[in-house]
Specification:
Layout (H helix, E strand, L loop, with lengths): L2 H21 L3 H12 L5 H7 L7 H30 L20 H15 L3 E2 L5 E3 H4 L24 E3 L5 H9 L4 E10 L11 E12 L3 H16 L5 E8 L2 E12 L6 E12 L1 H6 L7 E8 L1 H9 L5 H4 L3 H4 L4
Parallel strand pairs: 1-4
Antiparallel strand pairs: 2-3, 4-5, 5-9, 6-7, 7-8, 8-9
The chain binds phenylalanine (PHE).
């Protein structure tokens, strides 16, 4: 191509482009004009640049191209600024990628606690709370732990003072609640508990527990089984199998554990997983709370919502639940 022809094409584009810019009377129209002129692949300016290589006098053609480019760019910038000024705001470039907005979600452990609380709420349970910094007596003595029980060792329990501990379980809420409310009592007590443990894949030094307790005249082990089976079917699904096996806690007699058949998502299929400890309340615990253990009986259970969340979502390392890494947590919407 001759340089003169190229210059004419460049001038024609300048005229055409300036007209387009002048006619654009809304941000949307201006954006269309910008695409038409400056789009990297299909814009008119690109088309002009692509024929530049075929011109005999490349220097002259380059000057012509730059002249057009600068004229259109500065006209476009001026038009954008003028548009923003008449609209009374800063220039908004509607094509900029949106800034990522973070949307909070409830922590998976909190979601599990909420769901469990809802199931028991339907059965008439209310929520009870107790302090995390707890008197040794509520944590151990009132719950029928013998004075030399190994759990009371400094090794396992975090002592805040001579007689004050960070509660190692939510069971102290049993006695605190019974001191405050007369039977019939049906409560659920979620909360954090603390143990001197290493922070590894299966242990955390602080974790959530949910205590459940029912106290009345004539409460039996059958009530406990029926309630927990109902819970498991509501939480895991109507066909889920459960089983009870013997266990030991100083504050329940007899003591049991409940296992649920769960597919942990690790490729090993369904297997029995212990989800809670439970039992009929030991008469000594009822007496600690000032109740007549001849007249009243009760049951209690304690479960770990973090373990339940891990089983549900196939999480194999408990630290993921307590590391507060949003990249992990934002999956649980
Ligand atoms: N407190 C027990 C634990 O932390 C669980 C439990 C609660 C067992 C209530 C029986 C009854 O392991």
């Amino acid at each position: 191509m001759l340089a003169d022809d190229y210059r004419r094409q460049a001038d024609a584009l300048t005229t055409h482009g300036l007209a387009l810019i002048a006619e654009a009377n809304s941000p949307e129209a201006l954006r269309d004009v910008r695409d038409r002129l400056f789009a990297r692949k299909s814009g008119l300016l690109t088309a002009l640049q692509q024929t530049l290589g075929t011109v005999d006098d490349k220097r002259a053609a380059g000057l012509a191209f730059n002249g057009t480019k600068q004229a259109l760019e500065s006209a476009f910038e001026a038009a954008t600024a003028a548009m923003a000024a008449t609209r009374g705001g800063p220039a908004i470039d509607g094509t900029l990628p949106a800034r990522h907005t973070w949307r909070g979600t409830r922590h998976p452990v909190s979601q599990v606690i909420d769901e469990i609380a809802e199931i028991f709420r339907e059965l008439g349970f209310t929520i009870a709370l107790g302090p995390e910094a707890e008197h040794e007596w509520y944590n151990f003595g009132a719950l029928n732990f013998p004075d030399d029980h190994p759990a009371m060792d400094m090794h396992d329990t975090l002592y805040l003072g001579e007689r004050t501990v960070l509660r190692t379980h939510t069971s102290p809420v049993q006695v605190r609640t019974l001191q405050q409310y007369a039977p019939p009592v049906r409560v659920l007590a979620p909360g954090n508990v603390y143990r001197r443990d290493f922070f590894d894949a299966t242990h955390a030094p602080a974790f959530a527990q949910i205590e459940g307790m029912a106290v009345d005249e004539g409460i039996s082990f059958a009530d406990l089984r029926a309630t927990l089976n109902h819970f498991a079917r509501r939480f895991y699904g109507a066909t889920r199998r459960t089983r009870f096996g013997p266990s030991y806690f100083p504050f329940t007699e007899p003591s049991a554990q409940m296992d649920v058949e769960i597919d942990l998502g690790d490729g090993r299929g369904m297997r029995w997983v212990e989800i809670l400890g439970c039992g009929l309340m030991h008469p000594a615990v009822l007496e600690s709370a000032g109740l007549d253990s001849q007249r009243y009986s009760g049951w209690a259970f304690g479960m770990g919502p973090a373990r339940i969340a891990m089983a549900r979502y196939g999480i194999t390392d408990i630290r993921l639940l307590y590391d507060s890494d949003v990249r992990f947590l934002q999956q649980f919407t």
